[in-house]
Every structure is written in structure tokens, then in C-alpha cells.
Design brief:
Blueprint lengths: L13 E11 L5 H9 L3 H9 L4 E12 L1 H10 L24 H12 L3 H14 L3 H22 L3
Antiparallel strand pairs: 1-2
Length: 158
Amino acid sequence: MSEEKEYLNGQYPTFEVHLGVTLIAQGTDQATLAQELQEMSLADIGEAIFEGDMAGQFRAISFEHLAEDQVSAALQDLGNDGEFFNHGAEEIFPQGAKRDDPEGRVLRAQIEQGWSSQSMALQQKRFIEEVGLSHAFANWLEKEAEAENAMSDGMDGP
């Protein structure tokens, strides 16, 4: 379902786009590499992929059309003051609206479609595969299991 129409005020539609970036990089250790990446801009990362010492790729994972009253809230979620697209004297995108809760959106879709818990697990699996995060999920899951096992081992006591 696409709502790629002009807003009432004549502005072009605004989209929230999620990008997936996969890097393969060498570093002395994970913490140092993570710190180095935190200090890099997206332009720096792109340069490192295409001309530097990292291999990688990126792709658009999702595009979400933002309703006029959601633009300012989405900008604020990114740490912006919410006024980025409000050029000129008149307020184009109103401030103060709250974003739709993603958990509520998921629950509404589940109810509307009549999906069971098993169907939702399948949808989640398909999403993880589609966006290319199967390895990342497996890594996260193994770390969660390791932490959970460490906690239960500590509960056994002396």
C-alpha cells in the first residue's frame, strides 16, 4: 500500500528510510572497532567500503511514508528539533504529535489478519531473512542464551 501523494500544504511526501549496512572490517578487538565506527560519519563508512580498508554493502530495508503530523515527531526521534523541513515563515509540519507505537501497529495487523503466535513467528523469521539479518540474529540469540545460562549457573549456588 503506497500513499505517495503530495501533502495538503503542497510539500512532497516525506519518507522514513531504514538502511542496512554490512561491513567486514579488521580491528584489534571488537570494542575498539565499535568505537572507531561510532566516530565515523556515513560518508566515511561509504568511503571505507568503496575506497578504503573495509568490505561491505548497503541496501534500503524499508520505506515508510510519514503522515504530515508524524514528520516532526520522526525528526525528533532522530535528535532533530523537528523543524528540519519547516522552511519559511509558516509552520509546514506541525509539532507535538506522537508517533504511532510500532507494537500497537504490529498487534493491529496480527488481529486484523487473524495471525496466531506461530504465524507471527513465521512472519518475523521471513522479515529477518528478507532484510539480511539472519547471521546477526543468530549471533544475538547465542549471546542471549550464553547470558541466560550464566545466570542460571550462578543460581545453582555453592
